[in-house]
User: Fold this.
Amino acid sequence: MAQEEGPIVSGIAGRYASALFDLAVEAGAVDAVGADLRRLDQMITESADLERLVRNPVFTAGEQLAGITAILDKAGIGGLAANFIKLLAAKRRLFVVRDCIRAFASLTDARNGVVRAEVTVAETLSDKNRDALIAALRGTVGKDVEFSEKVDPAIIGGIVVKLGSRMVDASVRTKLNSLKVAMKEVG
Assistant:
């Protein structure tokens, strides 16, 4: 019997995320905590100043705690998520918050039976092709699949799919590079 592959959450971020996940499950607040964490992650992405506050070791724990508390209050992030983020700041671990957010999302996906895929295409997929891809991915993993679509004209054509720790690169760029290497070996 094949063993079910669970999410890999390790290191300091994994331990913190696992503890938060357990608390969220106990409180019946997994979705609310996940939404708050995603909102904070988006805020960090959009603000270089916030990212500096989170990542820069020059700030003291008190400065980070005061800054992040003000940001959480303004964003309306409270409850378990806010307490968790404040704890990270107080313990001088705020630099791992984004890793914690990703680990929490992995735990949530595993609990909900969802697998995430990252799809890169040369141009936006049509609805028909998107539906066919989702069906093919579901057939491969036997679970619900949610994927993010990234358009990168540099791949020329074809598709690159990252599904968990697996990656399939069927892009024209990769095929051309392989051909180029093969031609060098012949010549």
Notes: The CA atoms of residues 70 and 150 lie 34 Å apart.
